[in-house]
Amino acid sequence: MTTPEFADNRDNFCYRHPDRQSFVLCQRCLRTICGECQTPAPVGVVCPECMKAERKNRTPAQKRAERRWGGRSSGGAMAMTRGGKPIVTYALLAVTSFIGLVQLIPGLDGPISQALAFYAPYLYPSLSLLPFEPWRLLTAMFVHGGFIHLALNMLALWMLGQNLEPLLGRARFLSLYLISGLGGSVAVAVIAPDTATVGASGAIFGLMAALLIIGRHLGANVTGLLLILGVNLVYGFLFAQNIAWQAHLGGLVVGALIAFILTRTKRREQRIWQIVLLAAVVVALLVVVAFVPPLILLS
Q1: CATH number of 87-298
Q2: Model confidence over 59-93: pLDDT tens digits?
Q3: Which pLDDT tens digit goes with each residue over 242-298?
Q4: Which residues face 32 on adjacent strands?
Q5: pTM greater than 0.70
Q6: Catalytic residue among 144, 149, 217, 248
Q7: Which residues, in sequence order, are bridge partners of residue 25?
Q8: Where are the domains of the chain?
Q9: Residues 175, 185, 201, 217: which is the catalytic one?
């Protein structure tokens, strides 16, 4: 099966078991490892030494999450991220910041906002002269009403994502972000269907609510986060004239609901239930936005 040249090259043998030939490299150190030494990772496999180093470098919060969420390197929440790096957070930051900076170019802000902003009548072409554009429920998260609006939301995303994504894993974190943003748009459609909105605030409030609930689940002190969340809600309700507090409220409620689902379905054998329940939340939001706002618009 192998040539003499292959057999003579010691790099083609497991570094921990020199008598075992292998064609597989550790994705961290690039040393050859046999099947016994391989630990599955999101991309490829890692060797025992790299896995040990990765575990040693985890923060106390990540270690508590691994214990409480039943995570192991081969299947737990921590295994869903590569080295604990918040890759999805960075991707969301990059895409949203790029769109926001393009909006700052003279003459482009208006067309981009008009194309991506959420406005409930776009969901009901039979009640308006507008086309049917349901994707606005999500695209509104990627456009903002100015540099300060963009900067504040991206700062919050960066701070929250660094804590939440390593705890939840990439797929769960992205689901939390997008479904919370969807919840914010649905809340605007239900409470203020004639209001146009932009911004990732609904998704950000969903992240804050999730971090609050998951932090309590892990036994962390969440007093500071609770205070920040309360101040933002009060400010949006009472003092900010151009802030869609409805999106904040919708994202908050949906984010809390998703976090509750995740904390109750954290074991590996409950993964199917977790997916089913998250899908049910999405379906429920779509049903609400399909039937409730038209009644309001017609009244």
Answers
A1: 1.20.1540.10
A2: 666 666 666 555 444 344 433 333 468 899 999 99
A3: 678 899 999 999 999 999 999 888 888 888 999 999 999 999 999 999 988 777 766
A4: 25
A5: yes
A6: 248
A7: 32
A8: 4-57, 87-298
A9: 201
